[in-house]
Amino acid sequence: MPGNFIVLNVAEKPSVARALAGVFAQTQGARDSGPVRGQAAQIFTCDNVIFPYVMTQGDGRHHGPASNRPHTMITTSVRGHLASQDFGPNYGWNSCPPVALFEAPIETTYSADMEPLKNMLQSQARTANAIILWLDCDREGEAICEEVRKVCLQGNASLRDKTYRAKFSTVMPQEIIRALQSLGRVNENFVQAVQARSEHDLRVGAAFTRFQTLRLQKNFDEFANGSQGVVSYGPCQ
Asked: Which top CATH class is 5-224?
């Protein structure tokens, strides 16, 4: 029988991470070590959290108490999307025609305020035996799951098949316990749908914004006289 198993739990918001840690600490026999401050986000540690052994889950079905095992739960959070996508430096406004943006490669980047979170997740993943993703249960949350998973795998590639998805609608204790008993996997179809929409928005928005701004610069005095105005365009506008 395996002993305590280290699970890295990642929530979408700090408030959800605190609520999760509170529920874990209230389970019978759990030992709460409290939060660690001074990190990119608070990190909560709770030992001896008993629920169906995480490595036997992943099918999304309810697992009863017969398979219960102790787990050490390390809980932290991100703040929404970790990464952003944009075109590289070779595709600046004066470096290419707008039409080139429809086929230009897209780069994934991390802003200065997200780099500490990225590094923290990689560090925590190195000592984890599994990951449970507690992101919002919608398509956007599924896409953020993929961003978190990617960063964690950069820290510990062995977690590729040991990443689980919690499905929950509230942070009420009974809802969290139910989610721990029926862990599933990231919905790859939702991830791809959000990524396709994001790429479409970026390419169309950037290309048409540049096209109409550059064209108007040639026809209106306020642009010709040095104004830095941008006429933006986006599929949602």
From this structure: alpha beta
